[in-house]
Amino acid sequence: MSLKNYEFWFVVGSQFLYGPEVLETVAARAAEMAESMNASGNLPCKLVYKVTAKTNQEITDIVREANYDPACAGIITWCHTFSPSKMWINGFANLQKPYCHFATQYNCEIPNDEIDMDFMNLNQAAHGDREHGFIAARLRMPRKVIAGYWKDENVQKRIGSWMRAAVGVAFSKSLKVMRFGDNMREVAVTEGDKVEVQAKLGWQVNTWPVGKLVETMDAVTEAEIDQKMAEYESLYTIATDDIETIRYQAREEIAMKKMLDAEGCMAFSNTFQDLYGMKQLPGLASQHLMAQGYGYGGEGDWKVSAMTAIMKAMAEGQTGGTAFMEDYTYHLVQNSEYSLGAHMLEVCPTVAASKPRIEEHPLGIGDREPPARLGCEGKEGSAIVVSLIDMGGRLRLICQDIECVKPIMDMPNLPVARVMWRAMPDLTTGVECWITAGGAHHTVLSYDVTAEQMKDWATMMDIEFVHITRDTTVESLEQQLFLNDLAWKLK
Fold first, then answer.
1. Any bridge partners for residue 422, and if so which?
2. Average pLDDT along the chain
3. Is the pTM above the cut of 0.90?
4. DSSP β-bridge partners for residue 377
5. Whole-number Å distance between alpha carbons of 319 and 307
6. SS3 state at 92
């Protein structure tokens, strides 16, 4: 589903002790808060007030309902009054959706002249939320705690950010990945335990033969290709006279999309080592599919293709861009150190700083015709690169902060889309940290999705998260990884 079709349920805690008038006030205020926050424009999904829960059964029922409603991407709780936390045990023990504890209160200020015992009995969030927080800690629940006044813009935006991560969980749980052939021979990091990944993350990862893709390509009509060519012309600058090469890419894209949509797949991978019956490796075809929200992984890397799709879903409606990426080469001049990210062909045009160009150049690998591809330079701005790796027994999500720059040279003979960046905390320390953590050469680069969102996603998915920041040192990272190994062996 599109991000806007998901909703989050606002569940407020209380008890019968306070009497019907207080409970009616609590319910009215909760509905008002949800309506106001929806109207703010700071939430990407609708917040739906569901219930003021006062009993174990009410909480258990609403959790059961949330678990089985595909539109519900998570629950957000708040305790306006005091809600004895033993009431929440049965419900929380069975909760299968992401959970955010919103520690707020209805009033912003303490009303000096009006505060009395009636006010105190009604406005008990300061200790109601602490009682509520204890039981989640006691049950060791994965959760997000957000504290602050509910009308504050920055607080609403934090909730909105968490919502995006939770939508990434919902998207992940139903994600199907289509592999055209296997992964590149002898490559280690593109391997992984697909059974464990499906159990943990929900992904269905399966292989379709390249021959089936070729059959589908052969059935594509010239009229369909004409329509796709018109789409290309409206979006990109055509900088080659070899129109037939572009038309072949259009044929590949149309066929791949037909197969992906027929199987309900939102991510795919391929490899230049398995192009049986194809004239070109899909370049422009893969890039344009990514621009439409499909995830991609080169050399059969199904994990990065899935992560690209998930992060694109999380970033829906934002304009920075999210793309499959690969660290290609370094600029190691002292005080001017940069990474150059690119790939043979397949960098998503959503990260382009200006209108991409369709070009045709020899590939030099794969033993096929020169393919058409999009060339562009990446945008300037803060971003992250993310890698999911299989550590054997657990998954590790590695995230590094980067600062993208305008490439410091033109590179006129490099016929691929590329992004140049400063890695945090600096290039060499960042490389040492990345390699120490086992990070892959394939990543997802995003200007939209934040490290906090990826941490939230990893927490909801119950997988390890490693963050390389401006302050990370090799020594601190080594210690973190050592402690992580011990902790995850006990889980």
1. 403
2. 95
3. yes
4. 418
5. 18
6. helix
373, 361 Cβ separation under 8 angstroms: yes
pLDDT one-digit tens code per residue, 385-421: 999 999 998 999 999 999 999 999 999 999 899 999 9
Q: Assess contact for 22 and 80: CB atoms under 8 A.
A: no
Contact indicator for 290, 348 with CB cutoff of 8 Å: yes
Lookup: tokens for 312: 């694109």
What span, in angstroms and rounded, lies between the C-alpha atoms of 257 and 252? 9
**Cα–Cα dist 473/52, whole Å:** 47
Per-residue exposure over 420-436, b if at least 16 CB sit within 10 Å of its own CB, e if not: bbbbbbebebbbbbbee
Distance between CA atoms of residues 345 and 289, nearest Å: 13
Distance of CA 124 to the CA centre of its chain: 36
Q: Which of left, alpha, beta for 303 (phi over 0: left; psi -120 to 50: alpha)?
A: alpha
Through-space distance between the first and last CA atoms of the chain, rounded to whole angstroms: 33
Q: List beta partners, residue 204.
A: 176
List phi, psi (to 5°) of 307. Answer: -65, -35
Bond into 425 cis (ω within 30): yes
Query: What backbone torsions phi and psi does residue 209 show, to the nearest 5 degrees?
Result: -70, 145
d(CA 430, CA 384) in angstroms, rounded, equals 13
What does the H/E/C string look like for 105-138? CCCCCCCCCCCCHHHHHHCCHHHHHHHHHHHHHH
Do residues 311 and 168 lie in contact, with contact meaning Cβ atoms separated by under 8 Å?
yes
From the list 481, 472, 393, the residue with the least C-alpha distance to 437 is 481
HSE-CB at 420 with a 13 A cutoff on CA atoms is 16
